[in-house]
Amino acid sequence: MKLIWLVFTIGIASLIPSISGGDIYRYVDENGIVHFTNVPTRFDVKYALIYREKRATFGVAPKDIAKYDQLINEVASKYAIDPCLIKAIIKAESNFNHQAVSPKGARGLMQLMPQTASFLQVENPFHPEHNIEGGTRYLRYLINLFQGNLSLALAAYNAGENTVIRYGGIPPFRETRNYVALVLSLFEKYRNGSK
User: Fold this and answer.
1) Which residues are known catalytic residues?
2) Are 155 and 168 a contacting pair, CB within 8 Å?
3) Are residues 118 and 72 in the same domain?
4) Positions of E strands within the chain
5) What pTM was computed for the model?
6) Domain span at 12
7) Claim to verify: residue 68 and residue 158 sit in the same structural domain
8) 131 and 173, same domain (yes or no)
9) Which residues contact 12 (CB under 8 A, 6 or more apart)?
10) Is residue 134 part of a domain?
11) What would the mean pLDDT of 83-102 be, rounded to a whole number?
12) Is the domain of 184 the same as that of 132?
């Protein structure tokens, strides 16, 4: 039976990229029914990753960055945040891919975790307008929480506000330290007019 299930799973996984073009998750419910999805949306069950799409990394064309400019500028004005900072976070988080999903489940342009998106009442984290609105509102909250200290706000955006509070500063995680440095570098680049 296990061999048949393994062959079935591999067969399904080999067909999936042509259908959905993404990672595939599965879980078995209490009745033994197997569920498959490319976007696990139920948080009360544990999905297992059974197929990871091979992803190529490509540069982003200036037109792909510029297509969000109006939206970014409107949201930046609403929350009194430099639009170049929002662009820097989007570049670092998703490389301007509104359908991006991280291995930890963060989604969309500003990579909102499902719990954060729910807290911010972001109905569809893959919708650019909803995602940028929610991500920018969250960023404003973090900037206020850390009394304008941008490095701490960015560290909290990456590692969580409680982690930054617990460490009393930027946590000693290489990922978080690299993230803060990258976003600040991109922020400066966009402020200087570079694409």
Assistant:
1) 93
2) no
3) yes
4) 24-28, 34-37, 48-51
5) 0.69
6) 2-51
7) yes
8) yes
9) 24, 36
10) yes
11) 96
12) yes
